[in-house]
Inverse folding.
């Protein structure tokens, strides 16, 4: 480990303050920590566990893998998959691929923004929905398409997109 | 009786899981004697979900657009030995399949990708056995050379040449890498192969590894393709259990293992040196070549990188001979190519045809023509790196050279069809927006040049284009092309250059007449109401979100153009065709 004890201690305090339980990441670090070239895999696992990559966690990963924090942040910000902010319970990935664009994905985005009251990349104040544009989901024949928490919705119209979100919201309201 | 549900990603998106859940419940509740199995994508996405029934006498019936309800009806009918014709695949669609020649997609939509036995039953792993037991590595490379197989990922480089370079490179440790980072927005053939026939990719890699003297393989697959990753993992495990992967394959000295690395979402990682950087856990930024990966690649060792579709052709070539492959196609493009047909097309999906067919064959003969029978305007080939082919060049042959002569490229095989309602300036802006976001930032001309071009294009589509903008775009385009390090930057201006070449009048209309003839650019259209057609039903006024429409019942309404935000809601709500867009 290339870190000094001060860094490690400061990192531990920051993590505790942010309420991040690093023991969850330990199996990943045990498996990949010493394997060269595994930084992306570690970040992917971390995001899978915590839902996003808080800066305190990136620091921690840097210390544990012997990388400079700047390098870890550099990798985390290079790839579209990594998020440095938490996302809502439902992550709406709206496809903006070529086929979806040609078939009107822009109108879908407008409709979803209207329905949610947030812009692309933002999360609703109740923490339920995050809207993200993505490059291509590969379901071009069903365009326009969006994916919400792994489920794909195809052949969208603005009205259909709105009703899908309204249904999810109603489901949540019932649950509470 | 056997029931096979098509479960590629698009089948699942269309509801294939709901169909099979419903069918399984129905079979269980009624204690029926039906095996339920899955298969990959047959390529006819517009008919999904697709279900095949194979009766005990071997007859097969294909049902299309199946849902959770009518599947029960179909099961009842099949059990009686009767075909329920109203849900059966129409004759015209069957012919559409017969017009294709399937090599890379030979097993997609046919076998269960999660059962290695089904791949073996189709002659799977026979080609690697033949290589290891009967052929020298040099003979394998020679066979690929005879076949004329060229890289299917975009660049179209001869496969045998890369293999030979990696074989000749110094060193004992060599890597065989599969590029499954299919990033072109509008192409999904690699996903279909990985999901529908993963063993074909593994076998292609095995043959390549044997030819090059490599003992380790890596598949770099897009994280956005979770199902492909699941099926690849299953396939690798099964191949290891059967001894096709591991030590001393077929009792020889040849040993080979494959692992998967999930990409993290960066289009530039389709470039081979960027892909290698990403495999090493770094930011995926390309580097100067030479040294080529064949000499210094992954961890500085000799490495060969081929695309998914390229590998999927290899086993077929070994079993059927290079000559059978090169018998198809044109003098400089051999074999078949898979295209992902999307956009304003009636029958979108995957199509595999021999090289040398025409663009028209694909769009009209197999794709069924343009949606709603609108006028065909152009087709974008090669995604953000390619260009558009206008309607009057629709007889262009599918061949690396003739396509390149139009300004488009074969690319990975994306074909996005556009009709009269597509604005070509907006398309160019769309692609530049993509490449600008995906530029890794290493080369100044790519990083800043694409940004400046995007700004100009945005200005033109916003109605603020200026005299000289077209020339400025052309000059920036040539500078970026000539000074970028990698393929992303070198090709990023292509969509702009081809749309200027074939649709210069549209650019001029936007800039000088402030008109968008396709009515796509909001700032350049205006909405008015035809007083003669308007019945005064008030529907448009009630739907207008900004209260820009005024009028009384049964009297013609008027749109206040100052208030109008051009959302188009009046147009879509009018039942009398009274709203005019210009």
């Amino acid at each position: 480990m290339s870190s000094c004890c001060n860094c490690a201690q400061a990192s531990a305090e920051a993590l505790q303050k942010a309420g991040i339980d690093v023991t969850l990441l330990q199996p990943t670090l045990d498996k990949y920590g010493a394997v060269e070239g595994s930084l992306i895999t570690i970040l992917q696992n971390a995001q899978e566990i915590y839902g996003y990559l808080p800066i305190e966690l990136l620091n921690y990963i840097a210390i544990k893998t012997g990388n400079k924090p700047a390098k870890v942040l550099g990798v985390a910000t290079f790839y579209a998959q990594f998020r440095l902010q938490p996302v809502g319970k439902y992550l709406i990935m709206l496809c903006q691929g070529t086929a979806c664009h040609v078939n009107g994905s822009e109108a879908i985005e407008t409709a979803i923004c209207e329905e949610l009251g947030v812009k692309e990349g933002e999360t609703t104040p109740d923490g339920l929905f995050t809207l993200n544009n993505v490059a291509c989901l590969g379901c071009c024949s069903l365009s326009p398409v969006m994916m919400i928490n792994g489920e794909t919705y195809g052949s969208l119209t603005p009205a259909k997109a709105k009703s899908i979100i309204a249904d999810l919201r109603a489901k949540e309201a019932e649950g509470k | 009786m056997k029931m096979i549900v098509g479960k590629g990603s698009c089948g699942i998106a269309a509801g294939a899981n709901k169909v099979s859940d419903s069918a399984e419940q129905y079979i269980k509740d009624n204690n029926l004697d039906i095996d339920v199995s899955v298969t990959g994508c047959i390529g006819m996405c517009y008919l999904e979900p697709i279900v095949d029934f194979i009766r005990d006498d071997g007859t097969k019936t294909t049902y299309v657009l199946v849902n959770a309800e009518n599947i029960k009806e179909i099961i009842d009918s099949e059990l009686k030995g009767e075909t329920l014709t109203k849900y059966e695949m129409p004759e015209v669609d069957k012919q559409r399949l017969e017009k294709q020649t399937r090599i890379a997609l030979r097993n997609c939509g046919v076998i269960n990708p999660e059962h290695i036995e089904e791949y073996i039953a189709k002659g799977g792993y026979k080609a690697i056995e033949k290589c290891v037991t009967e052929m020298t590595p040099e003979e394998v490379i020679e066979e690929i050379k005879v076949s004329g197989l060229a890289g299917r990922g975009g660049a179209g480089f001869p496969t045998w040449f890369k293999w030979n370079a990696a074989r000749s490179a110094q060193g004992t440790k060599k890597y065989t890498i599969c590029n499954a980072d299919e990033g072109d927005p509008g192409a999904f053939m690699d996903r279909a192969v990985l999901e529908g026939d993963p063993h074909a990719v593994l076998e292609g890699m095995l043959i390549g590894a044997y030819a090059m003297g490599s003992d380790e393989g890596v598949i770099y697959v897009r994280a956005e393709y979770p199902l492909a990753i699941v099926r690849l993992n299953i396939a690798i495990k099964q191949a290891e259990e059967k001894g096709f992967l591991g030590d001393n394959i077929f009792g020889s000295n040849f040993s080979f293992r494959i692992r998967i690395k999930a990409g993290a979402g960066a289009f530039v990682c389709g470039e081979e040196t960027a892909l290698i950087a990403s495999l090493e856990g770094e930011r995926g930024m390309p580097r100067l070549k030479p040294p080529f990966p064949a000499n210094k690649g992954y961890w500085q060792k000799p490495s060969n990188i081929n695309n998914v579709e390229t590998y999927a052709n290899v086993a077929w070539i070994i079993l059927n001979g290079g000559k059978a492959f090169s018998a198809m196609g044109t003098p400089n493009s051999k074999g078949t190519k898979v295209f992902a047909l999307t956009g304003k097309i009636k029958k979108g999906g995957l199509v595999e045809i021999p090289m040398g067919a025409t663009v028209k064959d694909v769009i009209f003969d197999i794709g069924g023509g343009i949606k709603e029978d609108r006028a065909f305007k152009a087709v974008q080939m090669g995604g953000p790196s390619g260009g558009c082919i206008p309607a009057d060049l629709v007889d262009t042959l599918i061949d690396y050279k003739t396509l390149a002569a139009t300004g488009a490229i074969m690319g990975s095989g994306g074909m996005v069809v556009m009709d009269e309602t597509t604005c070509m300036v907006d398309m160019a802006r769309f692609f530049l927006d993509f490449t600008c976001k995906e530029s890794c930032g290493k080369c100044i001309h790519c990083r800043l040049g694409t940004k400046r071009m995007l700004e100009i294009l945005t200005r033109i589509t916003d109605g603020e284009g200026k005299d000289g903008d077209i020339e400025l775009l052309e000059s920036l385009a040539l500078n970026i092309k000539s000074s970028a390090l990698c393929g992303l930057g070198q090709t990023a201006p292509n969509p702009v250059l081809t749309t200027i070449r074939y649709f210069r009048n549209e650019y001029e209309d936007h800039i000088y007449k402030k008109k968008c003839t396709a009515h796509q650019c909001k700032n350049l259209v205006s909405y008015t109401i035809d007083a003669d057609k308007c019945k005064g039903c008030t529907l448009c006024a009630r739907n207008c979100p900004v209260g820009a429409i005024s009028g009384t019942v049964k009297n013609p309404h008027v749109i206040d153009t100052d208030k109008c935000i051009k959302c188009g809601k009046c147009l879509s709500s009018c039942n009398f065709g009274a709203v005019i867009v210009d």
Observations:
- Chain B touches chain A through 55 residues (CB under 8 Å).
- The radius of gyration of chain B is 26 Å.
- The domain at 526-581 of chain B is CATH 3.30.70.20 (Alpha-Beta Plaits).
